[in-house]
Amino acid sequence: MTETRPETPDGTARPRLGVGMVGYAFMGVAHSQAWRNAPRFFDLPLDVDMAVVAGRDAGKVAAAAARLGWRDAETDWKALVARDDVDLVDVCTPGDTHADIAITALRAGKHVLCEKPLANSVAEAEAMVAAAAAAPDQVAMVGFTYRRVPAIQLARRLVVEGRIGQVRHVRAQYLQDWIADPSTPLSWRLDRTKAGSGALGDIGAHVVDLAQFITGEAVTGVSAVLETFVRERPVAEAFTGLSGSGSTSGATGPVTVDDAAVFLGRMSGGGLASFEATRFAYGRKNAIRLEINGSAGSLAFDFEDMNVLHFFDASEPAVTAGFRRIVVTEPEHAYVAAWWPAGHGLGYEHAFTHQAVDLVRGLAAGEHPTPTFADGLQVQRVLDAVERSAADESRWTPVTTSTPAAAGTSTPTPEEAAR
Ligand SMILES: NC(=O)c1ccc[n+]([C@@H]2O[C@H](COP(=O)([O-])OP(=O)(O)OC[C@H]3O[C@@H](n4cnc5c(N)ncnc54)[C@H](O)[C@@H]3O)[C@@H](O)[C@H]2O)c1
Question: What is the 195 CA–ligand 1 centroid distance (Å)?
Answer without folding.
Answer: 10
